[in-house]
Amino acid sequence: MEAINKTPKQIVAALDNYVIGQTDAKKAVAIALRNRYRRMELSQDMQDEITPKNMLMIGPTGVGKTEIARRLAKIVQAPFVKVEATKFTEVGYVGRDVESMVRDLVDVAIEMEKQSAYSGVRSRAVAAADKRLVKLLVPAQKKQNNRNGNDFQNMMNMFSQLQNGQMPNAEDNNNEEVTDDVRNQRLSVADQLKAGQLENSDVTIEMDDPQQAAAGNNNMLGQMGIDLGDTLGSIMPKKRIKRTMPVAEAREILVKEESEKLVNNADIYHDAIVRAENTGIIFIDEIDKITAGGQQNSGEVSREGVQRDILPIVEGSQISTKYGPINTDHILFIASGAFAESKPSDLIAELQGRFPIRVELDDLSKDDFVKILTEPKNALIKQYIALIGTDNIKVTFTIEAIEAIAEIAYKVNHETQNIGARRLHTVLEKLLEELLYEGPDMEMGEVTITENYVNDRIGNIAEDKDLSRYIL
């Protein structure tokens, strides 16, 4: 959680690498983040009294609302989830429970804490994984004597491990005969592994069945904080499958298994909940779609009911999760919506009061489109140059061509539906369609995208309003 101590100017400067314009929104989220750090520097009594200033972003689609929140979370290494308000339903209707967004946040925090804990024990886990790889690459013969007695003893050991709450270990290293020849081969293979000479060699390993893990996670009980998978897993052993893969890939799977043995899950769960409570960010998109707007038909899910269900979570309440209870008092909630057919005052008064910071994001101009195409680290022009470059074709865009693309995107946005920066994806795909199709069959060369090329490819389409509605 060290990254949360960035100053507002540092946060804005980092956001500038990915999001063009929207200075007011960047300042607002930077101040909100800095206030969380400031709060942690106060006494415990004062910390409990200070609640986060939740934010409501207002602006049309494609202007950067979601991107600002997502990048913000990455910059400060905070647990982050994005949810759609329209997916929730009020209590009594079929649909996702609003509390599930908090449980999703805890799941994200758990993964972050696991990665942090695993990185701390990686060197030991890699050493243990390499030992297992050596034995798999140079297997020894199993002992055959007193088979019935061994089977009975193994079964009794498995029952004993289950009673003690441990997972039975199918691998029994004492049940193999290691001859001098096998021992010498293993020493040689261990040296080759350390030197990185066997990374592409195939090895067969036993691993947990990923289907079983997916089935355990995908259940409605998980939304209510009940983990049926763990309950059944403590009774029944995990299903194991065999897979043959390169040593480099197998090592990572074995490293993860060894890391799980070296860390304390109870500590991870505790630290994750603390992390989610103090630095978690929940982004609620499309909140304008759950305003009643004066239209309410009988039989429909009450939109106001969804707002009332969200309210106690934003106000601060205790939610049960499978890792323990979490308090939402200090989670930062960022809501967003276009509010084209409604306005923030259409939300219920109590919910309006829980989003005291209002930020209106500006519509994107032609100059903004030019900057979006060229300035960010992940700029679209840079992406397409890199993609086409994999076919040994060097693509160059002239300044005039980039301005023509921006002009067309801006024009189509205002003559049809305004979808913000997402229009640039559509325009560029149509512009480069022929080059992307013919590229793999072309010989190495250079291609320059000029203003005339842009006008020839998509200029006529943009001029025809009926055609641009369907194509651009």
TrEMBL record:
Occurrences of domain AAA+ ATPase (ranges): 51-365
| Gene Ontology CC | HslUV protease complex
Question: Where in or outside the cell is it found?
Answer: Cytoplasm
Q: Which InterPro entries match?
A: AAA+_ATPase (IPR003593), ATP-dep_Clp_protease_ClpX (IPR050052), ATPase_AAA_core (IPR003959), Clp_ATPase_C (IPR019489), HslU (IPR004491), P-loop_NTPase (IPR027417)
GO terms (BP aspect): protein unfolding
Which sites bind ATP?
I20, G62, V63, G64, K65, T66, E67, D285, E350, R422
Q: Where is the Clp ATPase C-terminal domain?
A: 364-458
Gene3D superfamilies xref list: 1.10.8.60, P-loop containing nucleotide triphosphate hydrolases
Q: Which domain of life is it from?
A: Bacteria
Per the record's keyword annotation, is Chaperone included, yes or no? yes
Q: Name one GO molecular function term.
A: peptidase activity
| Keywords (A to Z) from UniProt | ATP-binding, Chaperone, Cytoplasm, Hydrolase, Nucleotide-binding, Protease
What does the UniProt record say this protein does? ATPase subunit of a proteasome-like degradation complex; this subunit has chaperone activity. The binding of ATP and its subsequent hydrolysis by HslU are essential for unfolding of protein substrates subsequently hydrolyzed by HslV. HslU recognizes the N-terminal part of its protein substrates and unfolds these before they are guided to HslV for hydrolysis.
Annotated NCBIfam families = hslU, PRK05201.1
Oligomeric form and interacting partners:
A double ring-shaped homohexamer of HslV is capped on each side by a ring-shaped HslU homohexamer. The assembly of the HslU/HslV complex is dependent on binding of ATP.
Q: Which PANTHER family match?
A: ATP-DEPENDENT CLP PROTEASE ATP-BINDING SUBUNIT CLPX-LIKE, MITOCHONDRIAL-RELATED (PTHR48102), ATP-DEPENDENT PROTEASE ATPASE SUBUNIT HSLU (PTHR48102:SF3)
Tell me which family the UniProt entry assigns to this protein: Belongs to the ClpX chaperone family. HslU subfamily.
Its recorded name reads: ATP-dependent protease ATPase subunit HslU
Q: Which organism is it from?
A: Lactiplantibacillus garii
